[in-house]
Amino acid sequence: MREGGSAPLSRSAFRRSRGDGPFRYASTGAGILLLVIMAAIAVFLIARAIPALQANTASFLTELTWNANASEPKFGIGALAFGTVVSSFLALIIATPIAIGVALFISHYAPRRLASFLGYIIDLLAAVPSVVYGLWGIIFLVPFMRGPSQFLNDYFGWIPIFGGDQVVGKSMLVGSLVLAIMILPIIAAISREVFLQAPKLQEEAALALGATRWEMIRMSVLPFGRPGVISAAMLGLGRAMGETIAVALIFPATFTISFEILSANGNSIAANIANGFGEANDIGRGALIASGLVLFIITLLVNMAARWVISRRKEYARVAA
Amino acid sequence: MSAVTPEIQRISGMRRFKDKGVQALVYLAFAIAVVPLVSVLWLVISNGLARFDMEFLTHSMRNIGARDAGGGAYHAIIGTLEQVALASLISVPIGLLTAVYLVEYGTNGRLKRSISFFVDIMTGVPSVVAGLFILAFWILILGMPFSGWAGAMALSILMLPTVVRSAEEMLMLVPNDLREASYALGVSKWRTIVKVVLPTAFTGIVTGVMLAIARVAGETAPLLLTVFFTDSINEDPFNGPQMGLPLYVFDQAARPNDTAIDRAWAGALTLIVIIMLLNLAARLITYWRSPARKR
Amino acid sequence: MAKQIEVTDVDAYYGSHKAIEGINMTIDARAVTAFIGPSGCGKSTFLRTLNRMHEVIPGARVEGKIRMEEQDLYGSDVDPVSVRRTIGMVFQRPNPFPTMSIYDNVAAGLRLNHRYSKSQLDTIVEDSLKGANLWNEVKDRLNKPGSGLSGGQQQRLCIARAIAVQPQVLLMDEPCSALDPISTLAIEDLISKLKQEFTIVIVTHNMQQAARVSDKTAFFNLAAQGQPGKLIEMDETTKIFTSPTQKATEDYITGRFG
To answer: Tell me: domain A66-320, CATH 1.10.238.10, correct?
Structure first.
């Protein structure tokens, strides 16, 4: 700005400095670019999905096979979407209570020194790539779960989900377990964060009323942490639904709709993409892209639901803070 | 209300039982969680060390037959480093500028709100969808070849929202007094941002970027769809299929023989080491540079 | 409904740091005892040892004897939870449970201990809110969140919550320091009324307040920063404010330091 130093004050000193315009445009442009990318994702997926959907000789919604590379392509999303949703929810149901327990352990039960160390370990585990969990799942967990799966089938087969005639190693249950173990550190890490932020004032209020530790947690920590835990669980659900590699290695990749989680059922949109991409022809790739679009929409709905839940709960969290 | 309150009453057995019961459940949950997680780490380390040698780190899989021992992940390591570096080159400037827009320039208008909303949505985009997008747009419609660059673009879509959010958080932590002090000295807005705001938030932003890198370095699905496979060393990320470490692990794990499984473990170990180093570096930076060393 | 407290040789620590040392005193039943002294002298810490809230902080511990009518609060068979149930506490900043309604806030402590019928609860909640001089202001909105009240009302809600469980003793840790003068006055009126029923101990920074509300006053001081706080003298409030025996007390109340 020194360039105009000797110029009359009235003109150049109050001029916008050079660079402000370009910098403002660059940063605004970056923001807009982000919007463009999001729009482009939807547009290009749709653009590539349409030809494949038109070539489909069966109903995309109800067909239970995936023969997209055939000369008369037949493929449907039903079984895949079912598998994606069921396995993810199963993982969520397994992981969330344990993750909340882990978070409470670190935030309110473990001795302080141990707690910060454990918190660090959980953070690191949240960063372990999913392919590693997949590898662990297929090499270790699949053989390991044969016995317990057979046991569940033998003695609890009367419960429909554990029923079925043929128990397999690579089952929906084992896939869901791997997903659960994968999303557990993420849910635990976020929940621990919000539990630690629970206001000390309210915790002390509960204790001073003669509350036990659990009653104190129920009165002041859990109500405060609920929105955070819900969003953590939703984030975990989104991760589980989008997870590809771990489940591609483990799911039996069948096209059935069945709740028998110990039998050869189980597949997911993402696993099908990973497994089918290598040998897909043009229509086949389009079909996979169409399935990806469905996955995109499902995860979008989950995320929107999470945002809605959080915003509805926000007033309490704000007052407490 | 009773007229005579006794001395300090013991709390009821039921309450004590519940308290201890919940405590037992919490400890149990922790134990249940620790077992598989420790098992993952243990197996990766113990099985990975079997092939974690110089040959593994310096050789590719070229001319290694389906059942042969030996071979390595050099091509995959090179690929991962290049792809992640390119992804950072794309997403860090865009992400940083977007964060600057959101914090410094965006008035509470519709544009700011929709960008903020879509950053959230982008956070939830499954990695396989990001890969499909680049596949549809770059490879199928524009007719470009599979390449490391295509993979980097897919990864950058996954990195962007993380970078924006962490940078935004850090910029918002910069006290307004600092900005006003700078304006009061007659410094223009963009120079204030570049000379005062960004340097103040620098360590926080670096930490966020490194965590974002660590997260995408382990992504497999987008690479599968955009980088494809190769067993040979391809140092040019703009031309022809490359390899990536996560892809390497996936590829080897799906091969039904023990030497391949050994390579998969070693690859997983390499990947975890890289990611842990990034995490560690990020944490050390925060620790050393945090103004008060609060914790 | 009100008990006397006997304190013998109490020390309190935060980790290895000794915060207070060698406290001996008798806190009278049905009276207001005020603790005054400069910041950091340990008066709040001491207050928190009286209902075993001190040990809630990680690494904190207490040595010495505190007895309430022959019962040792730190006896090996005494559960801290039941001590806190018997000795209530009001904090510096009003801390109603934000997710609970006004009604539920008052009933929170009751619900922990017994099953009350709806009509019993209604009666106790009404009595407690009346006891805290808040009933008339909130009777039409008992189901609204407690966080919607003003600061002074929130503090009286916290007092209602504390007295609802019928404690023997009520501890107040600078209950007015976050409030405006009018709310402060309302709380002071309330304290004078509550001492008919409860033993009250109040920590305050405001010496006029101590003079107005308390029957006895204890002055705490510390020799230097980092040294443990000690009880310098304790006597009738009028005596402390007119003719203290210790030089340090006189210096403090006449405003020469602190």
So the answer is: no
